[in-house]
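Subject: Sanity check before I submit

Could someone independently write out the structure tokens for this chain? I want to compare against mine line by line before I put it in a report. The sequence has 98 residues.
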Amino acid sequence: MQRNVEEAVQRRVLDALKDICRQRGQAVDPQPDTTIGALGLESLQLVEIVFELETCYQVQVDEEQLAQLESVADVIEMFSDALQRASQQMAPQQEATV
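---
Independent answer below. Compare away.
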């Protein structure tokens, strides 16, 4: 199941980055090993992508991590971790209501 979550997050992150690049007229096809610098994103655009993903997955990430993101894989990992933490927090709540 964890593998499926990571794959879904990867697809969503790559799609969001492709959309932003396409809107900027860039012919960039981001891959997990693509650096954030190679995408030519301004910090505000990266924040917008992160906000969109937070909304999509209904999780919050540590905003201090944004400055440390170096690659697309870092973004994917950040959201995979946030989803895993959220599911672990939900599991005890679900058990308590059963």
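---
OP: Matches mine. For the report I'm noting this point. Residues 28 and 58 are 28 Å apart (CA to CA).
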